[in-house]
């Protein structure tokens, strides 16, 4: 990685410039740094999970094992991390922009169905339940949504769909399992929507966060609609109006400055960015409390109680 080598080989610990700790794995085995720690090493906290999942799904109510200045840098999907590590699927922006109109036309030529949703987490978290109810409301409002996954007992049926069938959908419900967690956008947005040539319909992250992290004009956000019925009507309108639908791909042929900057940003994955920071001799600070950083979230993000769907 541009001058660094990543390894899982723990015999290399004494030589490592940085040690990356996944949030779930610090206490799995005897850890030598309880007795000795190389003062030159950078200890990095890593997570791609939302705090909502960690605290309510895994019942980790504290990150105290990372506190008391144990960690030097954080590496997560959040833009306020020391090392910004977005879901790697986001790097597809560059490839799509490079292909431009040719890419758009190849995708649009296959669009014959309305909306797709693949999900296996139905009621595990507050967000899981809320997104299920929202989707039910969309379907009840007349929006054709083909739903697959463990929640609908048809995983095998989805696997049997042809490539043409899968690529025929115009929209993908990029509904996360947590609401308003800072910058939390996963493969649902990048791989299942943008990379697959579908317009993402977003629920979970705030519209402000999505605007910050996504190509301009590339998505539809549920917060812009008073009710699921209003959203369903709008998606049906786009389904019948090719010109209006195609506008959600304008960022590819005519990217604005922000979109081009994002494309440049996403050229580096988290590990590449970590390497670059290490080689640049960035300040080796420490975090008094990773718990305070990781759980410093909105009430909606951290709540276990559902809210009513309008």
UniProtKB/TrEMBL annotation:
<keyword id="KW-0812">Transmembrane</keyword>
<dbReference type="InterPro" id="IPR038577">
    <property type="entry name" value="GT10-like_C_sf"/>
</dbReference>
<keyword id="KW-0735">Signal-anchor</keyword>
<feature type="domain" description="Fucosyltransferase N-terminal">
    <location>
        <begin position="2"/>
        <end position="87"/>
    </location>
</feature>
<keyword id="KW-1133">Transmembrane helix</keyword>
<dbReference type="InterPro" id="IPR001503">
    <property type="entry name" value="Glyco_trans_10"/>
</dbReference>
<keyword id="KW-0325">Glycoprotein</keyword>
<comment type="pathway">
    <text>Protein modification; protein glycosylation.</text>
</comment>
<dbReference type="InterPro" id="IPR031481">
    <property type="entry name" value="Glyco_tran_10_N"/>
</dbReference>
<feature type="domain" description="Fucosyltransferase C-terminal">
    <location>
        <begin position="109"/>
        <end position="290"/>
    </location>
</feature>
<protein>
    <recommendedName>
        <fullName>Fucosyltransferase</fullName>
        <ecNumber>2.4.1.-</ecNumber>
    </recommendedName>
</protein>
<dbReference type="Pfam" id="PF00852">
    <property type="entry name" value="Glyco_transf_10"/>
</dbReference>
<dbReference type="InterPro" id="IPR055270">
    <property type="entry name" value="Glyco_tran_10_C"/>
</dbReference>
<comment type="similarity">
    <text>Belongs to the glycosyltransferase 10 family.</text>
</comment>
<keyword id="KW-0808">Transferase</keyword>
<keyword id="KW-0333">Golgi apparatus</keyword>
<keyword id="KW-0472">Membrane</keyword>
<dbReference type="Pfam" id="PF17039">
    <property type="entry name" value="Glyco_tran_10_N"/>
</dbReference>
<keyword id="KW-0328">Glycosyltransferase</keyword>
């Amino acid at each position: 990685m541009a001058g660094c080598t990543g390894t899982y080989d723990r015999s290399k610990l004494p030589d490592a410039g940085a040690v990356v700790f996944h949030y779930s794995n610090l206490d799995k085995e005897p850890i030598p740094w309880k007795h000795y720690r190389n003062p030159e090493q950078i200890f990095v906290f890593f997570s791609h999970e939302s705090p909502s999942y960690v605290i309510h799904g895994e019942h980790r109510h504290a990150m105290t094992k990372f506190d008391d200045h144990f960690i030097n840098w954080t590496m997560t999907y959040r833009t306020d991390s020391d090392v910004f590590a977005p879901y790697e699927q986001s790097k597809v922006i560059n490839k799509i922009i490079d292909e431009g109109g040719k890419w758009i036309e190849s995708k649009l030529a296959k669009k014959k169905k309305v909306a797709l949703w693949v999900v296996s987490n139905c009621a595990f978290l507050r967000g899981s339940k809320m997104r299920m109810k929202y989707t039910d409301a969309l379907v009840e409002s007349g929006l054709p949504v083909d739903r697959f996954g463990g929640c609908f007992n048809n995983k095998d049926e989805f696997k049997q769909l042809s490539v043409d069938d899968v690529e025929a959908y115009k929209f993908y419900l990029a509904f996360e399992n947590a609401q308003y967690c800072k910058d939390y956008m996963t493969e649902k947005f990048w791989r299942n929507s943008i990379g697959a040539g579908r317009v993402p319909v977003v629920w979970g992250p705030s519209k402000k966060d999505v605007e910050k992290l996504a190509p301009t004009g590339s998505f539809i956000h549920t917060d812009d609609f008073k009710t699921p019925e209003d959203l369903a009507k709008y998606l049906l309108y786009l389904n019948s109006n090719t010109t209006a639908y195609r506008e959600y791909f304008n960022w590819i042929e005519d990217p604005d400055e922000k979109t081009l900057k994002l494309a440049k940003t996403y050229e580096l994955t988290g590990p590449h960015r970590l390497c670059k920071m290490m080689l640049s001799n960035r300040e080796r600070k420490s975090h008094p409390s990773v718990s305070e950083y990781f759980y410093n979230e909105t009430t909606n993000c951290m709540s276990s109680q559902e809210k009513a769907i309008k």
